[in-house]
Amino acid sequence: MTEKPRGRPRSYDPDTALWQALETFWGGSFTGTSLDALAAATGMNRPSLYAAFGDKKSLYLKSFDLVAGLMKAALRRTVEAEKPLEAALGDFYNEAIAIYRSGPDGARGCFILCTAPAEAATDSDIRAALVTTLKEIDGGLAMLFEKGKAAGDLSPAADTTARAQIAASVLHSLAIRARAGASKKELDALAQHTVQMLCRDM
Amino acid sequence: MTEKPRGRPRSYDPDTALWQALETFWGGSFTGTSLDALAAATGMNRPSLYAAFGDKKSLYLKSFDLVAGLMKAALRRTVEAEKPLEAALGDFYNEAIAIYRSGPDGARGCFILCTAPAEAATDSDIRAALVTTLKEIDGGLAMLFEKGKAAGDLSPAADTTARAQIAASVLHSLAIRARAGASKKELDALAQHTVQMLCRDM
DNA sequence: ATCATTTTTTGCGAAACGGTACAAAATGAC
DNA sequence: GTCATTTTGTACCGTTTCGCAAAAAATGAT
């Protein structure tokens, strides 16, 4: 299938290079990460990086989209899971916490929620991407609560969009708290209490 | 009291200059804001700025402390208010939303919650300041719910620290959503639903 | 072996950055 | 008026930044 191209072969794999760039942005910020740092992380030199991914912002947005895709996939899995509402939301939070604490020092937070807001004030492209992701989180969780309501886990009178926005808010907070260095224990407790409050009918 | 100093008088007021620097950081980020921009905003030139506030990070941290002080004062007012729990938390959110949307384009978010997380990963001083503020928010709101429980607004069995952390989480989210450009209507709705969920006994 | 093609590598260049040295200006003290 | 003192303004330094131009290297095609 993938017939070999004509010229000199690449010395890097675009997918892993993008992931390494993503991790570099994740461990810092957009403005705070230099092209030299990205080149060092990917093992490429600047011109190759530029040829492969465009300028710095383009590379950031490609990283952003990669993370946004993973998040959408996680939301989809959560909604489609054959589990009670409580278990589904709890598992979603657990997965998020594991990722937010996956850094070398266990304090990375969320790539999107921790690096994009700072830039959103001055960069309308990043801001637009952030808006899209926030809506996807709200929307995905709304589907989850809607499904829970249909399954009888929630009263028919429950406001599913309101609960979804609160559930999303806690996700935002988990991201910030994790980046501030909160322990897994603290984050787990917050997630568990939130699940109890939002998934048990009142 | 304030006897005049000996030399050439200052051409600026330190307090207003600090506020102007704060607003400049607020409208951008720490790494993304240049000393030239700060000098232009304050009307001072770089050497004066340096003499008055130290280097860039020191100026950022002074701005941070100023905002943290205002936030603590708001929390204190909320806890000490002679109001039912629901009204007190609702007013607190309303005040926050007004500030978060006070920018020229109505999309500033929170200085601390929107600019500090990005830097927290690489700067331990900023991270420490962020940790302190997060704890102050959690702690202040915990006192509010504790007071509500004592006043009978909440069941004696209610977990006040859990509710406080969820209330704080929604504040974090309001900050992010505001910076992403959410309307006052959206933010008000989220705040109101949160108040209803957290302040009514279940 | 030679050529066309693609990538890598080296190195440049213009701009922005944070920070400071130093002289000029503006005040009070005498 | 003269001096000491403090702030302002100009100008500069070394570094880092992003982005690119141009040459060198590595492959397939012929």
Fold and architecture overview:
Two copies of one chain form a homodimer. With 202 residues, chain A is mostly helical. Helices cover 71% and strands 0% of the residues of chain A. The first copy, chain A, contains nine helices and no strands. The model of chain A has no long low-confidence stretch (mean pLDDT 95). Chain A binds a DNA duplex (30 and 30 nucleotides) through α3.
Summarize it:
The first copy, chain A, is 71% helix and 0% strand. Chain A is mostly helical and 202 residues long. In chain A, α6 packs across α7 (124-150).
Topology:
The structure is a homodimer of 202-residue chains.
Chain A: H1 14-26, H2 35-42, H3 46-53, H4 56-80, H5 85-100, H6 111-120, H7 124-150, H8 160-179, H9 184-199
Helix pairs in contact in A: 1-2, 1-4, 1-6, 4-5, 4-7, 5-8, 5-9, 6-7, 7-8, 8-9
Chain A binds a DNA duplex (30 and 30 nucleotides) through residues 4-11, 34-36, 44-48, 50-51, 55-56.
